[in-house]
Amino acid sequence: MSSKRKEIRKVSSAGPSGDAKAGGFRISTFFVVSLLVHAGFTVAAGFLVVQNIQTKRKLAFQEGPPVINATHRAIEHQVSMVQKLKTGGSPPQTRRIVANGIGSITLPEMPRMPSANLMTPSALPGMSGSGFGTGAGVGTALSPAMGMGSAGAAAGGGFSFFGFRGAAGSIVYVVDVSGSMIQGTKDRTSYEKLEQEVINSINALSPAMKFNIITFGSEAFVYQRTIVGATPMEKEKAIKWLKSYSPCLLLISGQTQGNDSMWVSVKGRRHNKTSSKMALSKAFEQGPDTIVFVSDGEPTDDQRDKVLWSVRELQEVRSKRAIINVFAYKADSGQFFMEKLAKDNGGKFTDIR
Predict the structure, then answer these.
(1) Mind listing the pLDDT tens digit for each residue in 284-321?
(2) What sign has the CA pseudo-torsion 192, 196, 197, 202?
(3) Measured distance CA(166)–CA(214) in Å, rounded
(4) Which of 108, 271, 275, 301 is deepest in the core (most CB within 10 A)?
(5) Which of 47, 64, 80 marks a domain boundary?
(6) How many CA within 13 A on the CB side of residue 156?
(7) Is the pTM of this model over 0.85?
C-alpha cells in the first residue's frame, strides 16, 4: 500500500508540473506571435498613412505657367507686325503741294509802329522772343536799344517811344513842358514832334494796359489821379489833356520860339521851371511798372543828387521796382543826371538830338 501511494504521488507530482511547463510555453509563444502581428499591422498602417500624405503634398505644389523669355516675346511682336503690314499695308502719305507761281492769298499788313524820325543811331528798334527787352521771359534783343522788360510786364503788352520798344503792363509818361522846350535850339516844330511821339505811343498801347500822363514845369500836373485803362475813349481824353499843357500855346501866330518874357505871365508861369523831382514823385504814386521820363535839362526843384536819392527811397518801399526809361530830348544840360536816373532804375537812356 505504501509503495502504491508513493507511485501515485510521483505520478501526480510529475504530471502536473510537466503540463504546467508545457502550458506556460504555449502561452508565451502565442503572446509573442500576437505582438509581432500587431506590430506588423501598425507599421503597415503607418506606412500607408505617410504615403497618402506625401502623395497629397506633391499634388498641392503644381508647376506655374511657363515663363516667356523677353527676347522670344520681342521676336513674336516683330513677326506679328510684319504680318499686319503685309495684310493692311503702310499708311498713306500726304501728297506735297508745290506751286511755282505767286499765290492769290496774302497775309494781312502788319500794324504801323510809331515813327522814329528823331531817334539816335543807337536807338534802333529790335525785337525777338515773346516780349520786348533783355529782361526775364523776354527774347534776345537785336539791338542795344531794347528795354529791360520783365515777364510780368510783358503779359500786359508793350510800348514804343522814339524807336525804343519795351515791355509794360502799366506805364506813366512824364513829359517836360517847361519853356526851355521851345527856346534855344528848340522851337514849335521840335516840341510838336515830341508831343506827337507821346500821342503815337499812347495810341499803340494794348487795351489790356494801364497808363497815365504827367506834365511838369513849375510844378507837376497829373492827367488822372490813378492810372486808367488804355481804352480808345481814355486815350482820346488823355491826348486832348496833353495838348492843353503845350508851351506852344503861348506862341502867337507866326512865332516859332519862346522867350523869357512869356514865362512870367499868369498863364506862362506853369512853364517857368523844371520840377523833375515833383514829377517823378507823382509818377511813383501811380504805382506803374514802367515810367517814361522826357526832359531837356537839369531839375530845378532840387539838386540832382537829392532827386536821385529821392527816387531810390521811393523804389525801396515798393514790392517791385519800377523801370525808368529816360529820354534826353535836345538837352542843353542834365545828360549826366538823366543817364544816372535810367541806370539806377533798370532803364534805358537815350539822347535824342
Answers:
(1) 999 999 999 999 999 999 999 999 999 999 999 999 99
(2) positive
(3) 19
(4) 271
(5) 47
(6) 23
(7) no
CATH number of the domain to which 325 belongs: 3.40.50.410
Instruction: Report d(CA 38, CA 44) in Å as an integer.
Output: 10
Evaluate whether residue 212 is within a structural domain. Answer: yes
Answer yes or no: is 268 within a domain.
Answer: yes
Does 332 lie in the same domain as 196?
Answer: yes
Write out the residue range of the structural domain in which residue 338 sits. 151-352
* Confidence tier at 100 by pLDDT (50, 70, 90): low
Q: Quick one: average pLDDT of 344-353?
A: 96
DSSP states along 78-145:
HHHHHHHHHHH-PPPPPPPP---S--S--PPPPPPPPP-TT--TT------TTSSSSSTT-PPPSSTT
- Give how many domains the chain has, as a whole number: 2
The pLDDT score that the predictor gives to residue 46 is 74
Residue 174 to residue 184: CA distance in whole angstroms: 22
Each residue of 193-223: pLDDT tens digit? 999 999 999 999 999 999 999 999 999 999 9
In a domain, residue 116? The reply is no
Gap between the Cα atoms of 193 and 327, Å rounded: 14
Is 34 strand, coil or helix?
Answer: helix
